[in-house]
Amino acid sequence: MQTSIFWTRLKKHQQYLYISMLLIAVFFIGSSLITPKITSVTEDLIQDIIQGNLKSKENIVAFEFNQLNNSFKNSQKILQNSQNNSFEFLKEKLLFTSDLAIENHSIYNSFVSIDIPKRIRETHFSNKEDSLYQKEIDTFLKNIHFVEDEVVIDTIITKANNVINRKIYIKKLSNNNVVYTGYDVDLISFWSYFSEAYKGDGGYTVITNKDGICMLHPDTAYIGKKIDTYFSTISIEQILKSSLKINGYYVPNNINSLKDKAISEFLDLEVLRYFDTIKIGNTPLIVVVSFPVDIHLKETTKNLQGYFSWISFLAFTTFMLLLIASRLQLKKEYVENLKVVEEKEQLIYSNEKYQKENAILQLNQLKKKINPHFLFNSLNSLHVLIDLNPDLSQQFVLKLADVYRYLLDEREGNLISVKEEMSFLEQYIFLQEIRFNKSLHVTIKNNCDDTILVKKIPFLSLETLVENAIKHNEITKINPLMISVVIDEDFITIKNNYTPRKCKAKDSHHIGLTYLENTYQFYNISAFKTGVIDDEFVCILPFIT
C-alpha cells in the first residue's frame, strides 16, 4: 500500500525526477569523458617522473661505485705502463695507491703482493694490525692459478657477519715478476653510507653483479645473496644485451628501458621495476630501480582529484537541493491526503475480511450440500452392490466412511495439501466409478516429484470440480464422461469432455466455483481460470503459497 502511495505522489512531480536524472546522467557522462583524459595525463607525468628518477639514481650509483673502483683502476694503469719505470719506483707507486685506497670508509683493507722468481713472495697490507686478514689473503693468492699475462678477479665473498666485494688485479711484468694488487669493499658499510647520503624518495635501488648476486639493497639480508626472483620474467642475459658498449660505457640500446611489474618482497606492494646496466671498469653491474605504483599515482593525481572532487560536490549539492524541494512538496500533499489514504486502507481491509468470511461460509454451505446429496446416491449404489458383489460392497462402505471422515474433520482455514486432497479424490472417484460403472473414466497424472505434493490448494477443490463435471454433463455408455487431473509444477489442470445436460440440475447454485473464486481472490491470485476450450471444460487450479 505504501509503495502505491509513493508512486502516485511521484507521478505528480515527474519534473523533479526528470531534472534529477538528467543531472546524474550529465555527471556520469562527464566523468566518463574526463576520467580517461586524467588517466592519460597522469600516466605521462608518472613516466616523466620515473624516467627522471631512474637516470638520477643510475648516475648516483655509477658515481659511487666508480669511487670505490678508482684505486683499482689506478693500480691497473700503473702496472700496464710499467715498462718505462724501474721496479722500485713501480713498487713505491703501488704501495702509495694501496694506502690511499683505504681512505674510503667502505674499503676494509688493501694489499700489494710481489712474486719474484726464486724468492719468497713479498706482501704489503695497508692495515697491518689485522693478522687474520693477512693469512686469509695469503691463502687466497696461493690458490690462484696464474696462466695469463693479466688477470682480473672481481668476486663477492660472504663471511659470518659481513659481505665483501674482493677486487684483485694480477700482472706479469717483463722481468717475469708477478704483481698482485687489490682490496676488499665492505658492502654492508657501503650500504650504510649510501642509504644515509641518498635518502630521497621515489623508489628504491638494488644493484647486482652480472651473476645476479646482490651488492646493494635496502634490506641488508639480501646483500651477498643471489636474487633470482628479480629476473624471473626478464633474464640477466636480456638486460645485458639491451645495452651497447660505447667507449667503455654501457648505454641503452633503445629509448625505453626494460621494465616489469612485480610484488616487492621488501615493501609488500606492487612496484614497477626498471632494469638497466652500468659499467664499472671492465665489470658490468645491473641496476634495478623499483617504483611503488600506488604511491606515485597518488602523488601525481592528488591535485587533479581535488578539482574533480569540487565538481562532484557541486553536482551533488545541486541534486540534493532539487530533491529536498521535491520532498517538501510531496510531504505537503501527503499530509493533505493522509485521511483519504487511511479510509481507503480501512475499506480494503474490510473487503478482504468479507472475502475470507464469505469463502468460509460458502465452504460450509458446500459441505452441507454434499452430505445429504452424496450420501443418498452412495446408499443407492451400495444397495445394488450388496447383492451383486458382497466383497466390493465392503470396500465401498470403507471408502464411504473415509470420505465422510475427511469431510467432518475440523481444520483451521480452508487450505489443504495436494497430497491429502488427492488421497481424498481417489476415494471419492472409487465410489463414483462404482455408481456409474463404465460410463465414468477418471485419470490422474503427476508430472512432478513429491515436493509438489506439500503445496496448498483450497479444501475440496478437486472434489468440487469432479462433482460439477458429473452433475452438469450427460453420462452414458455410448457417451462416457472422461475426466483428467494433471499435476504440473505450478498448478493442477482438470479437464472433462463438455456434453452439457439438456435439463439443468435444479439444485445447482454454482456454490462450488464461487467458493473457489472467492478463495483465490482473498489470496490475490489471478491464475484461477475456468472455461470451455475445444469441446472441453478446463479449469486451472494454481497452488497457494
TrEMBL record:
Q: Please report the organism this UniProt entry assigns to the protein.
A: Polaribacter sejongensis
| Domain Signal transduction histidine kinase internal region residue range list | 362-439
Q: Which UniProt keywords apply?
A: Membrane, Transmembrane, Transmembrane helix
Domain of life of the organism in this record?
Answer: Bacteria
The record's section on PANTHER family has: SENSOR HISTIDINE KINASE YPDA
Protein's name in the database:
Signal transduction histidine kinase internal region domain-containing protein
Instruction: Identify one Pfam family in the record.
Output: His_kinase
Q: Which residues cross the membrane?
A: 16-34, 307-325
